């Protein structure tokens, strides 16, 4: 590869990366659900996350990261109108910090902002 073509390649790579980031990165390629990139916010000291294996959590299909939702069981969660359904937007959620909150239903610990379960209802 000569010097000129390497420069062209790098320029095209920069344009491609910039374009993908404008249109949602991976989701633009794969068509996967677009969601906020989870930030790793430490759970407040002395608190524990709700266990996804807890019986009520399992019965509701709860996951601390909504992307892990079983879409075979909850196909509506994959619909475009459900893309903003997360614990942080749920009426049962009370914010504790930027990453965690308390759920009125799953009360044995904290739920992540990016969690979801089938009891989600829009906060007004
Ligand atoms: S009820 Fe709402 S806040 Fe509680 S786990 Fe389900 S989606 Fe999250």
TrEMBL record:
GO terms for molecular function: 4 iron, 4 sulfur cluster binding; electron transfer activity; metal ion binding. GO terms for biological process: aerobic electron transport chain. The keyword Iron-sulfur applies. PROSITE patterns: HIPIP. Belongs to the high-potential iron-sulfur protein (HiPIP) family. SUPFAM superfamilies: HIPIP (high potential iron protein) (SSF57652). Residues 27-53 are annotated as: Disordered. Residues 44-124 form the High potential iron-sulfur proteins family profile domain. InterPro entries: High_potential_FeS_prot, HIPIP_sf. The keyword Ligase does not apply. Homodimer. It comes from the Bacteria. It comes from Leptospira bouyouniensis. Keywords: 4Fe-4S, Electron transport, Iron, Iron-sulfur, Metal-binding, Transport. Specific class of high-redox-potential 4Fe-4S ferredoxins. Functions in anaerobic electron transport in most purple and in some other photosynthetic bacteria and in at least one genus (Paracoccus) of halophilic, denitrifying bacteria. This is High-potential iron-sulfur protein. Pfam families: HIPIP. The lineage of its organism: Bacteria, Pseudomonadati, Spirochaetota, Spirochaetia, Leptospirales.
């Amino acid at each position: 590869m000569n010097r000129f073509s390497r420069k062209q390649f790098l320029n095209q790579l920069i344009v491609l990366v910039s374009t993908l980031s404008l249109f949602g990165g991976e989701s633009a390629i794969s068509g996967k659900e677009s969601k906020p990139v989870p930030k790793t916010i430490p759970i407040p000291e002395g608190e524990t996350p709700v266990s996804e294996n807890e019986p009520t959590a399992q019965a509701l299909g709860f996951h601390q990261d909504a992307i892990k939702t079983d879409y075979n069981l909850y196909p509506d969660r994959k619909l475009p109108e459900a893309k903003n359904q997360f614990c942080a937007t749920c009426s049962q959620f009370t914010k504790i910090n930027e990453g965690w909150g308390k759920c009125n239903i799953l009360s044995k610990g904290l739920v992540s902002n990016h969690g979801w379960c089938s009891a989600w209802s829009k906060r007004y």
